[in-house]
Write a structure and sequence with these properties.
The protein is an alpha+beta fold. The protein has one domain. Helix content is 27%, strand content 28%. The protein has 2 helices and 3 strands, in the order βββαα. A 3-stranded antiparallel beta sheet has the order 1-2-3, with no helix packed on it. The N and C termini lie far apart (46 Å). The relative contact order is 0.11.
């Protein structure tokens, strides 16, 4: 893991097209602004993990369990 120190309004680059900016620091909370191309999904980790669990659960459904989806 790379650990960086940044102050408010300072940024880091990920690749050529993702910019993470420190927007605000209050106590033990940091607000980040993320500028990324629209095709790059950006989620909080807990949301990402929930999406992943739901996708795994859906992939295990059999044909009889999916026949009414979309009706």
């Amino acid at each position: 893991m790379l650990v960086l120190s940044r102050h408010r309004d300072q940024s880091i680059m990920i690749g050529d097209n993702i910019v993470i900016t420190v927007v605000d620091v209050r106590g033990d909370k940091v607000r980040l602004g993320i500028d990324a191309p629209q095709e790059v999904p950006v989620h909080r980790q807990e949301v990402y993990e929930a999406i992943k669990r739901e996708n795994q659960k859906s992939s295990r459904l059999g044909p009889s369990e999916t026949k009414d989806i979309g009706k």
